[in-house]
Amino acid sequence: MQATPRRLKAKRLLLRRPDLDADAANWVAMLPPGRSMLRRLRALRRMVLVLLWALLAGLIQALLIALPGKAKIAFAKFYWMVNCRLIGMSVRVIGTPARRTADGRPIVYVSNHSSWLDIPVLGGKLEACFIAKEEVARWPLIGTLARLGRTVYVRRRRSSTARERDEMRDRLAGGDSLILFPEGTTSDGSRVLPFRSCFLSIAELPVTADGKPALVQPVSVVYDRLSGLPTGRVNRPLFAWYGDMDIGSHFWRLAQHRGLRATVLLHAALDPSAFASRKALAQATWAAAAEGAAMLRQNRPARPVVPDGAEQAAEAARPAYA
C-alpha cells in the first residue's frame, strides 16, 4: 500500500538534515518528553564534570609546568583523554604514532580539522603540543587550558613570522613534538580541505645538531559513530564545528548523545628532505590524510596510507648502532 501524502510529509520531517542551531532545537522538541529531559540531564552532567575537571587539572598542570621533566607533557595527554571520556567520546586508533628518532628528530603531526573535538581526541593519544591561531588564547576557559597545554600561537602577520618560527624551532629542538592543522580552518567533516604549504614551513627548520628537520606524520580524524551506529552525511554535522557556530551550544547538542566515537588513522611518516619543495610536501600529506578520511567516512576497512617519501623517513627513524 502506498504511503499517503501526510505520511510522506512526516517521513521528510523525521529524516531531514539536522543543520544545527534552530534545526537542532526542533529535533530535540520532536523527542518524547521523557527522552528529551534525559538528554538534557546527560548534557548538563557532562558539562559540569568537564568544568570541574578543567579546574582541577589546571591547578595540577600549572604546578607541573614550573617543574623540570616531562610530567607536564604526560599530564596534558592524560587531561585530554579524561575529557573525551567525560563527554562520552571513545577514540579508536589505527596505526602507530611516529616517535622521536635516535638522532633527535621530533615529529610534526599533520591532521585534517573539522571540530574543536579534534583537540581532546588527538591530545589524548599523542604526546605533543598544538599549534593554534592567536584568537584561541582569548577564548574563555579554553584559552587558559591551551596555555597550560603549552600551545604555540601563530598570529598570521608578517611582522611576527620570524619570532614564531624561532619559537617553534626551539620547541622542536627542545624535545617537543607538535600537532598542526594545515587546512587553516575547520570544515563540515565531509571532505578534507587543501593543506596550505605555508603552514608546513616548520617542517623545513633544522632542529638537530646536524641540521636535520623534524619528520612529518599525516593523520586522519573522522567521527564515525553516533549512538553506536555508523555516521553518514545526515548526522555528520553534529560533530563538525565551523562557520559562526559558538562552542557552548555545539557542546550542548553533542553532549546529549551517547555512543560517540572518533577514529584516528596514523599514516606513514615523511621526511621533508625527500621532497623538492614545501608545496610537494603539503600535497603528499594532504593526499594521505584525505584518502584515510575517505576510507573512514565510507566505513571501509581502514589502513595507514604509505605516501611517496615514507621510505626515507623509515630509514631515518632506524636506530643507529656503533
TrEMBL record:
Record InterPro entries: Plipid/glycerol_acylTrfase (IPR002123)
Keyword annotations of the record: Acyltransferase, Transferase
Renumbered residue ranges of the record's region Disordered: 301-322
Start and end residues of each Phospholipid/glycerol acyltransferase domain: 107-224
Domain of life from the UniProt record: Bacteria
Pathway it works in: Lipid metabolism
GO biological process: phosphatidic acid biosynthetic process
Molecular function in Gene Ontology: 1-acylglycerol-3-phosphate O-acyltransferase activity
Protein name as annotated: 1-acyl-sn-glycerol-3-phosphate acyltransferase
Species this protein is from: Rhodovastum atsumiense
